[in-house]
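HUMAN: You are asked to prepare a plain-text protein record giving the amino acid sequence and the backbone structure tokens, both parts labelled.

ASSISTANT:
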Amino acid sequence: MAKPWITLDRADTREGPLELRRRGERDFLITLDGLVLMNSVANRSEIVLGQRGCRHLQSHAAPRALVGGLGMGCTLRAVLDTLPESATVTVAELNPVIVNWCRGPLAALTGAAVNDPRVRIEICDVAKLVNAATPGSFDVIIYDLYRGPHFRTDAQNDPLYGSRAIASVRRALGRTGVFAVWGENYDDRFVQRLQAGGFAVATERPGRGGLRHAIFLAQRLAESAP
């Protein structure tokens, strides 16, 4: 008989209650208004996102990464494991309770990735951070947010995945920087916006069988005008 889920902590948000639940020692859920956002045993796409997004920086002297969304810290762990010790990693997270969970009950899942000396946590909207960044601030920008691009995304004005947001990301990246994005499903219109915005795009669907989330890997084209 399966063990019951136990609610470890709860925080009220504008979108409903945010809860951390546990079953056993390493089986965790983060839910929002009853909807499962993250599952500690189904994180293959998040790990691949961090690895693929940063692999071009493994021999970089001092890479600068921005991760939008902390979640359970699995993407951050993959980023840290891929980047050299000289890296700096900024994590933009909206809700401080998520940071507390990653430093507390979830820490063992990632070796307490949030406490790595390379990491700086910013409690903020990642879109606003990108918009305010000086040109060329980052070598990689990774969005691991619970809402990825989809067919209903406002093609121009969506603050994360619209064409104006893509232009801001491109400006914040170095000349051959990478914009890596997690999506629940593949979105061809998002790919087209990335291409139109000066990126070469590749996509992956990690895993075998069943539901496989999408990863969008967009490399800034150096020959395009900034």
Observations:
- Residues 159 and 165 are 6 Å apart (CA to CA).
- The first helix runs from residue 44 to 54.
- The longest strand covers residues 173-183.
- Helices lie at 44-54, 74-82, 96-103, 107-110, 126-132, 163-172, 188-196.
